[in-house]
TrEMBL record, chain A:
GO molecular function: ATP binding; ATP hydrolysis activity
Originating species: Sphingomonas trueperi
CDD domains (UniProt xref): ABC_DR_subfamily_A
Source organism, top-level taxon: Bacteria
PANTHER family from the UniProt entry: ABC TRANSPORTER ATP-BINDING PROTEIN
Statement: the UniProt record of this protein carries the keyword Nucleotide-binding: yes
Species classification: Bacteria, Pseudomonadati, Pseudomonadota, Alphaproteobacteria, Sphingomonadales
Pfam families in the cross-refs: ABC_tran
SUPFAM superfamilies given in the database record: P-loop containing nucleoside triphosphate hydrolases
ABC transporter domain span: 5-234
Keywords: ATP-binding, Nucleotide-binding, Transport
Protein name, UniProt field: ABC-2 type transport system ATP-binding protein
TrEMBL record, chain B:
Protein name as annotated: Transport permease protein
Keywords: Cell membrane, Membrane, Transmembrane, Transmembrane helix, Transport
Record GO cellular component, one term: ATP-binding cassette (ABC) transporter complex
Occurrences of domain ABC transmembrane type-2 (ranges): 22-251
Cited PROSITE patterns: ABC_TM2
Length: 308, 256
């Protein structure tokens, strides 16, 4: 199936000489949730801004549902909705009129029924006549989403959608994003919150210093790069790891009270039974054990750390 | 989406007009009060001691100049704040990411700014009629000048709004350039009253041509020939249009 968004060799070098994006290739599938992860200054917002027409790329081509974003900007842009990181909305406008304004700006004829339903879906209906300046931060962010969805875009960009919002609202946002995906909207979100990507994304891209380091199915990525850990709570603390345990990847934590074994979750042999037998032979007793798998955050830190 | 983005143009136009309606009292009361003060000070107190100019009493002579003064200032102010405010608040991202062309954006913003200026010009005209006897020899030309000048200077204001990086810069051109040029451009006098070399120097002031043409439409007489006035206004309009096209092609102070 043709990707809904396709980037080839997209680069951006600012007048200062700073290269914010370095030959990025990326395909986004129709109807998926794609999470773009990266530290501050990695190039996430620049990438979104280029696709949306706010920043001019230095090189490369961008196809939005088959339309060249540079040569056919009108067709390309009409398919995209953008919720920027910062709350940027005319504070004197009223909620309902702000959504209707955005719909008109994107060339759509008025559709009060659609706009009303949108406000209801975003729990903004009761506030439709309120001035935006009177709303809470979370409500303002919902207004931004309403404006971005007002012209019924096929692709929705969410740049750090839950930055600075409380846990409850973050969960609400996640539910909302899920509902949008169910309707067939392709969603591309950037986030600092790895748990956000872990919770929602179908695929994950990691970007750092303007380079796209990888693009992978989330589950496949976690399988491929994921590590598991076995934590043993020792009865007696160890001062050092005995030489006899050299063949296992072990570390001591908690002042020698905890022995951690890190192993490859995908390996055919984990090495756990032989480790436990060896500990028994060495009279190293443990009173409890716990296993955990590495999160997307661990994978992300490893990837970005490896590039540093 | 094909063709002209009419909903987009209309959305911008309505949004900008709504901004004016939010400050309706200030938008209408200010020009009415200012005009009344001008008539009291210049028309009543000082004007009574000034002879008729080209056969027109001084109070009536002031009207085209006063309208032009407000028209220039209001057009620049309305259009410049219209585009500067989205830059200042960050909402310009929506304009840049929308499927709307540069020309469509300009039509929306400049159309709204020019509409407001023309309405204010007509309000001043109506206010003037309360103070002095008025005649308009060429009403169609008067309206045409009113609209043409409002559109041209709204475009100029739009350019200033894009160029400005701060509220201070936003006010620099209107306060330090346009106001002096208007005051020295024959708004309150005929440049024929000036001795040489100031008469010749005044001919280099572009506002002279605007005021003169507009005054001609009222009284059938101006400081310079009407074709010069029309020609100059047209040239300035094309200059502004060219600059705007260049701004959107290059993304000057709009895009990185």
């Amino acid at each position: 199936m043709q990707p809904i968004l396709s980037l080839r060799q997209v680069s951006k070098t600012y007048a200062s000489g700073h290269t914010a994006l370095d030959h990025v290739d990326l395909d986004i599938h129709r109807g998926e949730i794609f999470a773009l992860l990266g530290p501050n200054g990695a190039g996430k917002t620049t990438l979104i801004s280029i696709i949306c027409g706010i920043v001019t790329p230095s090189t490369g081509t961008i196809l939005v549902d088959g339309n060249d974003a540079i040569r056919q900007p009108r067709a390309a842009r009409s398919k995209i909705g953008l919720v920027p990181q910062e709350i940027a909305v005319d504070m004197f406008s009223r909620v309902g009129s702000a959504a209707r304004y955005s719909r008109g700006l994107f060339g759509k004829a008025p559709d009060h029924a659609y706009c009303d339903q949108l406000l209801k879906d975003l729990s903004l209906w009761d506030k439709r006549d309120a001035k935006i300046m009177e709303l809470s931060g979370g409500m303002k962010r919902r207004v931004m989403i309403a404006k971005a969805l007002s012209h019924e875009p096929d692709i929705l960009f969410l740049d750090e959608p839950t930055a600075g919002v409380d846990v409850e609202l973050r969960r609400d946002m996640w539910k909302l994003i899920g509902r949008l995906r169910d309707r067939g909207t392709t969603i591309i979100l950037t986030t600092h919150y790895i748990e956000e990507a872990e919770e929602m994304a179908d695929r994950v891209g990691v970007i750092n210093r303007g380079k796209l380091l990888l693009v992978e199915e989330k589950t496949a990525l976690m399988k491929k790069l994921g590590k598991r850990e076995l934590d043993l709570s020792l009865v007696e603390p160890l001062a050092a790891i005995p030489a006899e345990l050299g063949e296992w990847q072990l570390s001591l934590t908690d002042d020698g009270h905890r022995l951690r074994y890190t192993f490859d979750a995908q390996a055919e042999r984990t090495g756990i039974p032989s480790l436990l037998r060896k500990l028994h032979d060495l009279n190293i007793a443990f009173k409890d054990l716990d296993t955990s798998k590495s999160s997307l955050e661990d994978i992300f830190v490893d990837l970005v750390g490896a590039q540093a | 989406m094909n063709g002209i983005n009419f909903p987009g143009i209309w959305a911008i136009y309505k949004f900008e007009m709504a901004r004016t309606l939010r400050t309706l009292w200030q938008s209408i009361a200010t020009p009415v009060i200012t005009t009344s003060l001008y008539f009291i000070v210049f028309g009543g107190a000082i004007g009574s001691r000034i002879d008729a100019i080209h056969g027109v009493n001084y109070g009536s002579f002031l009207v085209p100049g006063l309208i032009m003064l407000s028209l220039l200032m209001q057009s620049i102010a309305n259009a410049s704040i219209g585009i500067y405010f989205p830059k200042f608040t960050g909402t310009v991202f929506e304009l840049l990411s929308a499927p709307i062309s540069a020309i469509e954006l300009v039509v929306g913003f400049v159309g709204a700014a020019a509409t407001k200026s023309v309405v204010i010009g007509l309000i001043i005209l109506a206010t003037s009629a309360l103070f002095v006897p008025l005649r308009v020899d060429h009403p169609a030309a008067m309206l045409a000048f009113l609209v043409l000048t409002a559109v041209t200077f709204s475009m100029f204001g739009f350019i200033i709004g894009i160029w400005a990086k701060s509220f201070e810069q936003l006010n620099i051109v209107p306060s330090l350039l346009v106001t002096p040029l208007t005051f020295l451009g024959g708004a309150f006098y005929s440049i024929d009253m000036l001795p040489e070399p100031w008469h010749t120097v005044s001919l280099f002031n572009p506002v002279v041509y605007l005021v003169s043409g507009f005054r001609w439409s009222f009284f059938g007489h101006g400081d310079v020939d009407i074709t010069w006035s029309l020609g100059f206004t047209g040239i300035f309009l094309l200059l502004c249009l060219g600059l705007i096209v260049w701004i959107f092609r290059t993304g000057y102070r709009l895009k990185n």
